[in-house]
Please model this.
Amino acid sequence: MLALAGVLLTLEFLAAAPVAARMFYLERPKLGVELSYVFQQDNNQNPSQTTSSRDQRFLESLTLDSRGFVYHPALLQFELDLTPTWQQQNESASRGRTNSNQAFYLDYGFSGAIFQYKPLSLNLRARRNTSTVSYSLSPTTSNENFLWGGTLVYKSRRLPASLSFDRSQLQQSGFFTATEDSDRANFTTTLRGERSQTSFNADYDNRQRVSQGLRQETENSALRLSNGTALSADRRAYLSSSASARRTTSNGDTTETVDISELLNWQHTPADQRLQINSSYSARYSLNQRDGERLETIPLDASLTLSHLLYENLRSLLRIDGGYLKFTGGENRNYGAQLDFGYTRRIPWGQLRVNANNRYQIDDRTSNQEIVSVVDESHVLSSFTQTLLNNRNVDLTSVQVFRADKTLEYQLGVDYSLTPAGLFARLTRLPTGSIADGETVLVSYQYQSDPSAKIATYSRSFGAGLTLWTHLTVDYQLSLADDSPLSGETATIINESTAQTLSVLLQYPWSESELTLSEEKNNSGTSLRSIKGKQKFTWHPRDNISLSLSGAYGESELIDSGKNRQSYDLRTDGRWQPRNNQQWTLSLFQLGEKSNVPDKFVSSGVGLFYLLHYGLWQVEADYKYRRDEQSLVEQKFTQSAFNLRLSRTLQ
Model:
């Protein structure tokens, strides 16, 4: 506290000192305040035991911020901030377990810019965070985190560049012991020409951490060079080139990737002509090495597209393309043709749309490797859609699912389920797991490659849509695809699929209704029938009052196995603003999933929120209650929480 008081007095003295008596200027410090109280109680019940816990936290925080310059703003401008924080926490759990702690955090930092108005400038930054946590039943834990770095910036219209370096150190001692050192460097530059732009980027990151005697070291380095060039003055021919390399080493395991690509897009006719002719050519080389395993791909593609606007509302498209793919374990040649028609016509009450698409493609695949590895295949997991891995004949025991940033590996049976779906594998998020609805995950696995074969695929689709009075939209789409064997071992890979979808959307200023019916039949994958519906009502009885009610329902059935799943989501939100500086919000929800496994999950809750602004001060208060039930494991979970926060804007 004495050190804090000394800093405050020093800042006040410097701010009040005459300009002639100092070689720099310092603004009068701005002050921000935050006071908060948090209460949370959890109860967890299952057949074997019942547990409960209670947590109360008090937090008081001050923020001081000041800006200034040394000698002249063009020489050095800087900003200083200081944030002391006090926290008291009391925890109690079932069976008489209690714990309390007091913590003090002192954060302060510096940022500055030297010669920021010159072509060459330097930005500096430094920050130190310290904290001490005192537990009633264990020794005190101290944390100290220090970061410093800078960025050298060269300002040029033709060749701007920046070079940055940051170093951070973490030391944790006491009840938990850990140290972490991190260095990160980056260089970026761009060369701008009349018709081209070339960019270069280099990254380096090294992180070493020792926690409880366990040492972890990760090193990343990456280079990327890219160029875009207009080959003609009218920019109808454009060449894109890129080359990148990355090397990652983590605890002795090394992953190396190399990627080189060229893409040429050429529009042969002026943009205002009815007949458009475009061609595209691409070449790429990709290499991935990990744990002594080498994955290599070389795809080559070319296409010629003719698009003709026959009338103002009738367009036709002819596309001819071919490609070659060489990968570790085999190669694949493909060539095909596509013919599309699209027709749009305005009618007295709206608009009519019709489309027809046909494609014929031949794939000639040669495979000399039985087991193929896939690394970091991206998928989005959602409650209302099914997710199939991209390849067939997957070894289910080899599947690994990671968070998108690779910082966490999800657990089978806890976060997700994995089940066969014909020749494919279906990945499903579990509602009680850690994967959020709509989250992107990365999947690595091994699969048995298809045998060598030459297959022709004929696919076609037909669609029609109608919009009436801008309120009602109806769309129908039918897609069919058939494989025909030409040569090779094809008994297990012939595919026939049919998919159709009907969607209806009805919109008004106060209501929105949506219904989607779909059916997909696939002899080598899954045959699925589903229905999805959404409804939302919105009322504004007064300018300061609004109420919304929304619901969603989905049902899906695996036609082959008869397994089905239903899910629903009901929500109500109300807002009342008695004055311009006050607002009340009430939210209620209930969502659930069930299937004929049997399994059932239900979650419901309510929340009340209050917000008040008064000058520089702001008050936030909310109460939340949630109850979850999982019938398969006979588990019930309830949570109630209250939060109160008083803050003053930095001024």
